[in-house]
Design goal:
By secondary structure, the chain is α/β, with parallel strands linked by helices. Helix content is 41%, strand content 21%. It is built from 20 helices and 18 strands.
Length: 507
């Protein structure tokens, strides 16, 4: 049976609790990008996220008997706050299952709005399965974060507001995609009323379940997801949201962590508000779309683009990481490994070559009689500059490697430059990621075999939901099979960096 989403959206009960958020013009970003860019400010909801719309619309339509029994949901934060506030407004019990990795700021926010919090598992999937168990045991009503027609319709009211607030020409609306509830609702309304407007979904490169699903024509389940944009870290999209996406989404765009950080900075510059990573995804996608089109025969100019700023539940401690990576994401910083002759005057000659450029980082330590390796960060104007600078250095006899997009360099090397050690023979270098929570680092260390010597170790708290560690291990050749088994069974994401040029030059 087909669902009349236009009717469901027009009759949604969201405004009992949610508010119509402004559609704000971004003058600075618009001028820079050569197009008119608007932010749909869902971060201004009382729970700082669009999730309130869907949660309340679902719960407002429950029977009095269902409300009396209470509701349950699984969430990493934003949906949880929407359900908790809706339950408080409707006078019913709300049990919220959250992963143990959820930042304290989100747990406290749910409790402050009257929600009962149960912490279970390390991911949304773990919390979801536990919530289903409790639903049956306690006879509660499950409020799905995205795969429910009433939830989808509640989110779709955002599309209704956009068209009412900007009745003129709109080239495209950009929507962050996790499970697909937001783009399903917004896409359904806009395409039914204004089919000329493009609906473009945006995901991170490491949480792209919807992109892969649309490409393959079936729902794809990811083995793991990146946790930086925790609000969109979904391993499998919903059945109904996938059906709607196939019908109404024009294309998907993928962006990386640096681009998201740059978008957070863009929104802050325009509004003085700080979005969470998922909240800034749409802005990052709009910028990537314009940049991609600029390379076409007919660049995108003077068009109207709307980006849904869908959430602002930012963990404060994460801002350090965002600030560091925003410059790279905005193409304002380039990072290089430069080899110069270890002789008098060469260091000065290289500095003269750098010239008047602003230096963001400069690391050097003597470790060889003939060659010196310099780790240098420079401010640049755009993405085209780093390759030009590298060629300029090469022409002057300074062998250069562009590390601007090298994760090892950006996360670890820049904090570790100090020279090689003669004691590190036979070293294997690996990057690991694990869910960040108290005691997580020690549990990671405990998982290492006691017979393997640790020759290098670097961990730096980034304030996010994931811990990143760089480890040098001296594993005897006879134990390599055991080491490979260790990597296969440890349960953490890992990358072999032993052949990375940044490692070979500096460590």
């Amino acid at each position: 049976m087909s669902i009349d989403y236009l009717k469901k959206i027009l009759t949604s009960r969201v405004y009992d609790l949610a508010v119509e958020t402004p559609l704000e013009f971004a003058p600075g970003l618009s001028e820079r990008m050569g197009n008119r860019i608007y932010f749909k400010r869902e971060d201004m909801q009382s729970v700082f996220s669009f999730k309130l719309r869907g949660a309340y619309n679902k719960m407002a339509q429950l029977s009095s008997a269902q409300l009396k029994r209470g509701v349950i949901c699984a969430s990493a934060g934003n949906h949880a706050q929407g359900v908790a506030l809706s339950a408080s407004h409707l006078g019913c019990r709300a049990l919220i299952v959250m992963p143990v990795t959820t930042p304290a700021v989100k747990i406290d926010a749910v409790r402050a709005r009257g929600g009962e919090v149960v912490l279970h598992g390390e991911s949304y999937s773990d919390a979801y399965q536990h919530a289903l168990t409790l639903e049956k045991k306690l006879k509660l009503t499950f409020v799905h974060p995205f795969d429910d027609p009433d939830v989808i319709a509640g989110q779709g009211t955002i599309g209704m507001e956009i068209l009412r607030q900007h009745p003129g020409s709109v080239h495209a609306v950009f929507v962050a995609v996790g499970g697909g509830g937001l783009i399903g609702g917004v896409g359904a309304y806009i395409k039914l009323v204004r089919p000329d407007i493009k609906i473009i979904g945006v995901q991170t490169t490491d949480s792209d379940a919807m992109t892969r699903s649309l490409h393959s024509g079936r729902r794809v389940t990811l083995t793991d997801v990146g946790l930086f944009s925790d609000g969109t870290a979904v391993k499998q999209v919903g059945e109904e949201t996938f059906r709607l996406a196939k019908k109404y989404v024009d294309e998907m765009i993928l962006v990386d962590t640096d681009a998201v950080c740059a978008a957070i900075k863009d929104v802050f510059t325009e509004t003085r508000s700080i979005l969470e990573p998922a909240g800034a995804l749409a802005v990052a996608g709009a910028k990537a779309y314009i940049e991609r089109q600029s390379n076409q025969k007919t660049p995108l100019r003077d068009e109207t683009l709307v980006a849904i700023a869908c959430g602002a539940n930012m963990n404060f401690d994460r801002l350090r990481f965002v600030a560091e990576r925003a410059e790279v994401g905005e193409a304002h910083e380039a990072v290089f490994a430069v080899t110069i002759p270890e002789e008098r005057g060469s260091f000065r000659r290289f500095c003269h070559l750098v010239g008047a450029r602003s230096i963001t980082e400069f690391n050097y330590r003597i470790n060889d009689e003939k060659l010196a390796h310099v780790f240098v960060g420079l401010q640049v104007a755009n993405r085209a500059e780093p390759p030009k600078i590298a060629r300029q250095f090469d022409k002057q006899g300074f062998k250069t490697i562009d590390l601007t997009h090298d994760e090892l360099a950006k996360l670890h090397i820049r904090h570790l430059v100090g020279g090689k050690s003669a004691l590190a023979s036979g070293e294997l270098l690996y990057r690991f990621e694990f869910p960040e929570r108290p005691g997580a680092l020690m549990r990671f260390l405990d998982s290492l075999a006691p017979s393997w010597n640790i020759s290098l170790f670097h961990y730096r708290s980034q304030g996010g939901d994931v811990g990143r560690v760089l480890v040098g291990l001296q594993v005897p050749k006879a134990e390599m099979k055991a080491f490979r088994d260790f990597l296969a069974n440890i349960g953490f994401r890992s990358w072999d960096e032993s052949q990375n040029p940044a490692y070979q030059l500096f460590l």
